[in-house]
Write a structure and sequence with these properties.
The complex is a heterodimer of chains A (172) and B (214).
Chain A lengths: L25 H21 L2 E6 L17 E6 L4 E6 L7 E4 L2 H19 L4 E6 L5 H14 L3 E5 L3 H9 L4
Parallel strand pairs in A: 2-5, 5-6
Antiparallel strand pairs in A: 2-3, 3-4
Chain B lengths: L15 H17 L14 E2 L3 E2 L5 E6 L5 E5 L2 H15 L5 H8 L11 H5 L3 H4 L16 H19 L8 E6 L5 H13 L4 E8 L8
Parallel strand pairs in B: 1-6, 3-5, 5-6
Antiparallel strand pairs in B: 3-4
Helix pairs in contact in B: 2-3, 2-6
The chains are: A alpha/beta (172), B alpha/beta (214).
């Protein structure tokens, strides 16, 4: 057996000196808790956040939604973080706004209330993106829908008619 | 008055129990921790208020970076192996067992079918050099992303059948860079919709929930 002689030189020479087996564990416990904290935080913060998207079924034509066009609010994402919107479909007036709190969010909240009052039904938002917009714009708009609690919305492809409408209004 | 003698008590306490517990927890967290795999691409996702967490297993991730390159990855090593076999069968490419082994460890890749072998025979550090992987083709003429997704879903069923379970289905997550063009994202979404996948997740950063005006 290996022995470590740590007895003080001299002194009593009667038999081996009894030593305490206790070790100061404070630094070890400190380190252990530090590592626990580290691993706990990294495991829980590593999981990415997600947003769930449901797209309408392309193949199911029977389910095409027929709705009163007065309830429809169309949002078009344009170039350079611009947002165009119009209400209804017959000869609509296209206006312009942006992604800020006072822009799109206020618009959605106002329109939600207005459409509820005039038609007695919920607003329906159609979201369309031009080729000049980017992914952040799409996520921002979907996020605004969640923030303002828009009852129904759908992501749709942009049509040539929409592009023409933008051109006619001198936008894009 | 006589002096009252207070017996001196030791301030050191027995930390053995606490230490035991601390190390037990430490072991648990070390073993459950999943380290972030090295990825060939850097993506900055946009923020949203959604707090939904992505599950650890049964997820395929489609990554789109700001140069509109598309990368694909799926969780589960056996699933990857099965997926590669199915894909190789479809494209008539034979992979050696060593290449299959490499592919099992590949969490994300973004190369056309013809260049996959070259990537598999590289060292890990070289493989993830920025700009080396050109992205998976997603044109309507040559949509390899569609084939990867289809084979991954099929492989999921095969792997589940081998274990004697029923497949739970793979969840699809799109991890796009904030600056990605919309047309690329639309092509990815169309690819999904063409296979009747109408429900998917977008990976975002967490943002604070704003206070709405009354």
């Amino acid at each position: 057996m290996a022995e470590i002689d740590s007895g003080g030189g001299g002194g009593k020479k009667k038999g081996p000196k009894k030593q305490s087996t206790k070790v100061d564990m404070t630094p070890m416990v400190d380190l252990a808790f530090l590592l626990i904290t580290f691993f706990m935080l990294t495991t829980t913060f590593n999981k990415p956040q997600t947003m769930e998207v449901n797209m309408p079924d392309k193949n199911n034509e029977d389910k095409t939604i027929k709705l009163n066009f007065k309830r429809a609010l169309t949002i078009i994402m344009g170039k350079g973080d611009r947002v165009y919107f119009y209400q209804g479909i017959e000869d609509p007036k296209v206006s312009i706004t942006d992604y800020s709190d006072g822009g799109l969010r206020k618009l959605l909240l106002d329109k939600k209330k207005e459409i509820r009052q005039t038609t007695g039904k919920d607003m329906f938002v159609v979201i369309k993106a031009t080729d000049a917009s980017n992914y952040k714009n799409v996520v921002d708009v979907l996020d605004e829908m969640a923030i303002t609690g828009a009852p129904t919305y759908a992501l749709a492809d942009i049509t040539p008619a929409d592009l023409q409408l933008l051109k006619k209004n001198g936008l894009e | 008055m006589g002096k009252v003698k207070i017996p001196r008590k030791s301030v050191s306490l027995d930390m053995t129990a606490m230490c035991d517990m601390a190390f037990l927890l430490l072991n648990f967290f070390i073993l459950t921790a999943k380290f972030k795999a090295e990825e060939p691409v850097n993506v900055e996702t946009p923020g949203s208020i959604s707090e939904l967490k992505l599950p650890d297993i049964g997820v395929m991730t489609i990554t789109v970076d700001k140069d509109n390159r598309v990368f694909f990855g799926v969780e589960g090593q056996f699933l990857r192996k099965e997926m590669l076999k199915l894909f190789a069968g479809q494209y008539k490419i034979g992979y050696t067992p060593k290449e299959e082994q490499e592919f099992m460890l590949l969490s994300t890749f973004g190369v056309p079918a013809t260049e996959l072998r070259g990537i598999l025979n590289l060292e890990n550090a070289e493989r993830n050099k920025p700009g080396l992987q050109k992205g998976i083709p997603i044109d309507s003429a040559d949509n390899q992303l569609r084939d990867w997704i289809a084979q991954a879903r099929y492989a999921d069923k095969v792997v589940a059948a081998q274990k004697g379970e029923t497949a739970k289905g793979l969840r699809i997550a799109i991890r796009g860079d904030a600056q990605t063009n919309y047309p690329t994202i639309r092509r990815v979404i169309t690819t999904l919709q063409d296979q009747n996948i109408n429900k998917f997740n977008l990976i975002t950063n967490l943002e604070g929930v704003p206070v709405l005006p009354k």
